């Protein structure tokens, strides 16, 4: 194997690991959309809130990292439920554009609130995980962890949706929301639970991102748009589609970045996205 | 679900783009009205990613210069200065809107500020059109002035071409004695954020490196908001540069250094070019001693100059600036951006406005423009050491200070040391990175 091959392999591995992070983000957004039919434009900002929770609990109050992670997951789940109760629930019946604008407004609200409360400084939890060296290839443990968690999260979510009563009810609502009410399912409870689970997934993403990125009020800008794009590419609400799309996008970014440049890799990713939207406007894996 | 899917496909992305660019919050603050105060717009990024990358530090520096002037009675001891604060939110379009608001609604004749070159380039045209003054304290891109023949835009601050000049000058001087290779055998990589600042610095790096015969093994741009830089790191490992020249803001610098460390990237030296690299406190909070011995090019933080080499009184002025900045922010390190904001504003208030009032009869844009062109401060006459003489209209860099100079600094155990130009260095540079650095070539 020549040296160039090793570097290409490293780029591919990095692409897979980045795909894991993006897939995890897409998972929660897709769940919410699939069940409630609302897009949380502010999803990446919920992740930001989770990162701040973790930072304060671990660094400032000295909680052990695992406990702080757990608290952040529960905390963001609560935020998700709150977001549903206060913002989404009152406008559930209104035009989709209003719902988009409302969650878009939340994006700015959360960004500004974080700026107001924590300032614009970049904060870091100061935790450094080891690096795995395989010959000339270095693999970031924190990325590997994110990748593994994304896989486990996806499987757990799949089992939850296919094996539990609540999960089946969620999927049923996604298929036909009118009839489910008539059959005695409490839609409000299902929506609230879905929002909490979506929030918990954002909290989980926060726990993993905080190992790789500094926390600042605008961290969402790095992930929000691409997560949204991945969800649309996979077919909004289609969780498997989102999962696959995350890896396709991350490979285009990684390999394009390796052969050309990072800038061009994003151009390629967007061109791919636009072409796919023409060919399969319903999404990659939609039936 | 179908209707929403359709809507999102039709309008989702454009909407998202619009949504992300809509102004978030705008801070406006007016001082108490006084008898004929001179109103000055202060336009900086107080929110968004640039805020913590030096913009807020610049704004505080500018504010300290205004406060000090007012405490001494005002300009010429009698005209108080009233700042009107605006937040450009790290977005060029907001900078333009706020600039227009300052001029048309707040009726200021001078806008002081601008951190980001991406905002400075369009704003310069806007302000020039309206024949008002844009007094740039911080943004460095040479392209703000180059071949644009501006008459109402001034910058005493250095410009981005000078980063290349300093970085390559430093390397040429130290290649043989410290790195053991002739400049022609030295391999550098140039990586940069893709806005006017990074692009300007990188173009200058490339130009001066070519002139010096230094090999460029990789030159690549990326977006400062990119969520992943690992493919860039992989390419750097493949290209094996001796020295990395990097122009970046903050989220990207921390992401790059973290991924570089995780991927086992090694080099003999990394030279940053101001912006995020000049925020030593913040980099230290993230990386601790990992960043020890990295170099950074920027105008000098005034407190690192020998006051004996400056005009009388400037040493005390620097001390007041540093004390007030520390008191206001609780920071340990006073980044160069404080000096940039303070120095440029101080030059306007103490050297330009007095001439405008006494010689040209007021503080309107026309009087300030003429006064600025009259200013002639020798080297050593400002707190950052450089002199001030603006290139006149009709020249290639019309409006830019022809006497500005940057320095090469090195982080040594959490302290900033000036290492180049050799004539004013605090110590000789440590080159290559010592073996204890996690980035050092073994």
Short description:
With 287 residues, chain A is an all-alpha fold.
Note poorly predicted spans of chain B. Answer: 11-34
Shape of chain A: globular
Can you name the CATH architecture of chain A? Answer: Orthogonal Bundle
Determine the mean pLDDT of chain B: 90
Taken as a percent bin, the fraction of beta residues of chain A is: under 5%
Query: How many distinct folded domains of chain A?
Result: 1
**Text of the CATH class of the largest domain in chain B:** Alpha Beta
Itemize the secondary structure elements and their pairings.
The complex is a heterodimer of chains A (287) and B (442).
Chain A lengths: L2 H34 L6 H18 L4 H24 L7 H23 L12 E4 L2 E4 H23 L1 H11 L1 H6 L4 H23 L10 H15 L4 H21 L2 H18 L8
Antiparallel strand pairs in A: 1-2
Helix pairs in contact in A: 1-5, 1-8, 1-9, 1-10, 2-3, 2-4, 2-8, 2-9, 3-8, 5-6, 5-8, 6-8, 9-10, 10-11
Chain B lengths: L1 H20 L7 E2 L7 E7 L10 H17 L9 E7 L4 H13 L5 E4 L3 H13 L3 E4 L16 E3 L5 H19 L7 E7 L2 H17 L2 E8 L7 H10 L3 E5 L3 H12 L6 E4 L7 H8 L7 E4 L15 H16 L6 H25 L4 H10 L32 E6 L2 E6 L22
Parallel strand pairs in B: 2-3, 2-4, 4-5, 5-6, 7-8, 7-9, 9-10, 10-11
Antiparallel strand pairs in B: 1-3, 11-12, 12-13
